[in-house]
Design a protein that fits this description.
Helices cover 61% and strands 3% of the residues. It is mainly alpha-helical and 634 residues long. It is built from 25 helices and six strands. The chain has a four-stranded mixed β-sheet.
Length: 634
């Protein structure tokens, strides 16, 4: 399934999620009312089976508790995937880690991000989890995390880890990650009744009842009443748990098949993800999760976490998933062991598990109409391309992306003007706002990176995103203020500078500002005809005046709108920004139509030049889409 189609399908599933949630609330309210009625019947307070006043009070109380619980959790999850990672007992991996297993994981995740055209997510490890499992979480790619268990990185080979990571990236690209986060918020509300009952029951461990001749059983009676209420709420809450599992199973199972298939297309290696699944079935710990909040996140996991599921598993059986990947599988699982100490290392030598190609260069290949039409297809994402790009970057560049100070200077360097006089003024501003060293570093990175191909520049930006998420809020505000000034300093609109700054701010704002899920306002591209015209005209102009008319005609030829190119006065920075903002509120399929039109505009001459590739990728990123690099290895 095309990524845009998959995202649209995930968006439509959200509606069913709301329906399931309402049914769950109704079921729990009726159950609570039944218990209240039985209690009143026992005490002689019930007048009839149907008591409207009692039912209304029960509905308001129960629905209010569940609704407030969902609202609280949803607001908490706006903080991004790291909220889930912490709840699961994970820790963030230091990008400079010397641990061989962690270093290999960092390389694989960075390669996969570069290949798929999304910012590198933060990488977390669940050290206490010995089973083989993983998850991706976040409201959007800019605040996403990929977390794996210690058992995953210890027991799987590099190709098997690639398969697991590719599966999780599929959830990011297919829109499953955002859907799963919404599901977590709603499930928390459904589980609130059960959680309250359990807390009441467990609180009795700290209660001591002292009996006396004058007490007449009062203290013991209170304890018995608390036990009765707690047990009753746990029983009623089990209905909510059942509905929660039903929702998780309904939403998750088919999406797992899609993610497995996409992972094979990303890696071009069905044996990788199949091998990981076989090792889950062949080891003592399987994919079991011990984290206290694993039940809430069970639908996020790579494989079944081993929680009691009332017969409603969130994942297909292992053998079914493996058979779908390898038709000739013999049914035997693969045993695994933890690696030997210092396996593969030698004195004074490196570790082959983290080695890769180096020194490769990239070039823009001829772009065909087929390539543009296939935009968003899983087959267009190639992990080998990400590996080639990541391995071709100098170690000093990657180190800078992983350093919170140098990463800022690197972005400043990419935004510096080409004109020497303008650049001097910009350096002075950077020094004034961020210090002398920041200005010198920015100039250093400008000279180092100016001649790089667009795909390498964008890869460096992607690698910098998780590092920049480590800034404090005042540091982030200063960083954004400087990038905005660098763009506006020459009084001219440099589209690449604008797009680069917008991409960085979009992905970081989702972390620092904790925006809620964007609302869908536009479901048909015809409603955005003016905005399409502005963006297509701008994109066509990037190819030069001799290509502009032809590129515009190629992009707009199939629309049948019969409109003319937008005049320069309508293609300024503010107009482009407004157009992108509106497309950010559109459905995935509308975004797909726009990107296809922009792609046709830049490929009019048959070649996507570096500047055109930069702008196309940045435009896609600015509206929440991903476009893999338009490069091939030499």
């Amino acid at each position: 399934m095309n990524f845009f189609d998959a995202q649209d399908d995930a968006r439509r599933r959200t509606r069913w999620l709301v329906v399931y949630f309402i049914l769950a609330i109704v079921g729990v309210i009726l159950s609570v009312y039944g218990i209240v009625f039985l209690a009143m019947l026992y005490t002689g307070g019930a007048t009839s089976p149907w008591m409207p006043g009692v039912f209304t009070a029960t509905a308001i109380g129960t629905g209010g508790v569940m609704g407030m619980g969902s609202l609280f959790k949803t607001m908490q999850l706006n903080g991004g995937g790291e909220v889930v990672a912490r709840d699961m007992g994970a820790r963030q991996v230091d990008p400079h880690t010397r641990d061989t297993d962690e270093r290999r994981l960092v390389n694989v995740v960075e390669e996969m991000a570069i290949a798929s055209g999304v910012p590198v997510p933060q990488i977390w490890i669940m050290d206490e989890e010995l089973g083989i499992n993983a998850f991706a979480a976040g409201t959007e790619p800019g605040n996403a995390v990929v977390a794996v268990t210690r058992g995953c990185i210890q027991r799987l080979s590099r190709s098997e880890i690639q398969g697991v990571v590719a599966h999780e990236f599929s959830h990011i690209l297919n829109g499953d990650m955002r859907l799963n986060m919404r599901l977590m918020g709603l499930l928390f509300g459904i589980l609130m009744i059960s959680m309250i009952g359990r807390m009441m029951f467990e609180a009795l461990r700290f209660v001591r009842v002292r009996s006396s001749s004058n007490d007449k059983g009062g203290g013991a009676g209170i304890v018995i009443a608390i036990v009765a209420v707690g047990v009753s709420l746990m029983i009623v809450g089990s209905i909510g748990v059942f509905f929660g599992r039903l929702i998780q199973a309904a939403i998750s199972r088919q999406r797992e098949y899609l993610a497995d298939a996409s992972a094979v297309q990303f890696t071009r290696d069905p044996d990788g993800i199949a091998g990981a699944l076989k090792k889950i079935g062949g080891q003592q710990y399987g994919s079991k999760m011990n984290a206290a909040k694993a039940t809430e996140a069970s639908h996020l996991l790579f494989a079944d976490g081993g929680m009691f599921s009332y017969g409603l598993a969130t994942h297909p059986p292992l053998d079914v998933r493996i058979k779908a990947l390898q038709k000739s599988w013999d049914g035997e699982f693969t045993p695994s062991e933890i690696p030997d100490v210092a396996a593969g290392r030698s004195v004074g030598g490196g570790d082959p598990r983290v080695s890769g190609f180096s020194g490769q260069t990239v070039s823009p290949p001829p772009i065909s109409r087929h390539t543009i039409d296939q935009m968003g297809e899983p087959a267009e994402v190639d992990l080998q391309t990400g590996h080639m790009l990541r391995s071709g970057l100098k170690r000093e560049w990657v180190h800078a992306c992983h350093d919170r100070e140098e990463a800022q200077a690197l972005i400043f360097g990419l935004l510096l003007a080409e004109d020497n006089q303008l650049r001097e003024g910009e350096i002075m501003f950077v020094k004034k706002g961020a210090g002398e060293d920041a200005g010198d570093l920015s100039l250093h990175w400008n000279s180092q990176l100016a001649s790089l191909h667009s795909s390498e520049k964008i890869a460096l930006v992607d690698l910098s995103i998780p590092t920049l998420r480590g800034l404090s809020l005042p540091e982030y505000d200063r960083f954004i203020e400087i990038t905005q000034w660098l763009i506006a300093s020459d009084g001219q609109v440099d589209l690449f500078e604008f797009m680069l700054q917008r991409v960085v701010q979009r992905h970081l704002d989702s972390h620092f500002r904790r925006h809620a899920f964007p609302k869908i306002k536009y479901r048909r591209i015809e409603a955005l005809q003016h905005e399409v015209n502005v963006l297509v005209t701008t994109m066509a102009a990037v190819g030069g005046e001799d290509q502009m008319a032809g590129g515009y005609a190629a992009a707009m030829g199939e629309s049948g709108w019969g409109i003319q190119m937008a005049p320069p006065s309508e293609c300024g920075l503010a107009n482009v920004e407004s157009a992108l903002e509106k497309f950010n509120w559109s459905t995935p399929l509308v975004k797909k139509q726009l990107l296809r039109m922009l792609g046709l505009a830049v490929m009019y001459d048959g070649i996507v030049e570096s500047r055109e590739a930069e702008l196309l990728r940045a435009t896609a990123d600015a509206i929440g889409c991903s476009v893999p690099p338009f490069v091939k290895g030499e």
